[in-house]
């Protein structure tokens, strides 16, 4: 639950001032000049987060190690389980 509060705090810390600027609660020359950039910033950040997440997932999938010994052990256990079930009268 603590991590949730951490993320919510960061979310409101960023979105509070952004909302104030977008709804014209804060008006000055800087916000008028860069309104489009300020308005698009959260959308760009969410998009960048998504792209980076997909790249990290793809990298980890492609560099995942094969466990040949574990595969052999698992196949052996499956054969033993099938033999045990056949011995007990189950038809496979």
From TrEMBL:
The chain crosses the membrane at residues 6-26, 38-62. It is found in: Endoplasmic reticulum membrane. Keywords: Endoplasmic reticulum, Glycosyltransferase, Membrane, Transferase, Transmembrane, Transmembrane helix. Component of the dolichol-phosphate mannose (DPM) synthase complex. Pfam families: DPM3. It is a multi-pass membrane protein. Belongs to the DPM3 family. The gene is DPM3_0. One of its GO terms (molecular function) is glycosyltransferase activity. This is Dolichol-phosphate mannosyltransferase subunit 3. GO terms for cellular component: dolichol-phosphate-mannose synthase complex; endoplasmic reticulum membrane. Stabilizer subunit of the dolichol-phosphate mannose (DPM) synthase complex; tethers catalytic subunit to the ER. The keyword Nucleus does not apply. GO terms for biological process: GPI anchor biosynthetic process. Pathway: Protein modification; protein glycosylation. The keyword Metal-binding does not apply.
């Amino acid at each position: 639950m603590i991590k949730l509060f951490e993320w919510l705090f960061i979310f409101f810390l960023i979105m509070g001032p952004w909302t104030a600027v977008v709804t014209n609660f804060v008006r000055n020359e800087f916000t008028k000049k860069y309104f489009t950039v300020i308005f698009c910033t959260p959308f760009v950040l969410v998009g960048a987060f998504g792209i980076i997440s997909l790249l990290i997932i793809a990298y980890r999938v492609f560099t995942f190690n094969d466990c040949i010994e574990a595969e052999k052990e698992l196949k052996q256990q499956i054969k033993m389980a099938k033999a045990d079930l056949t011995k007990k009268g189950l038809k496979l």
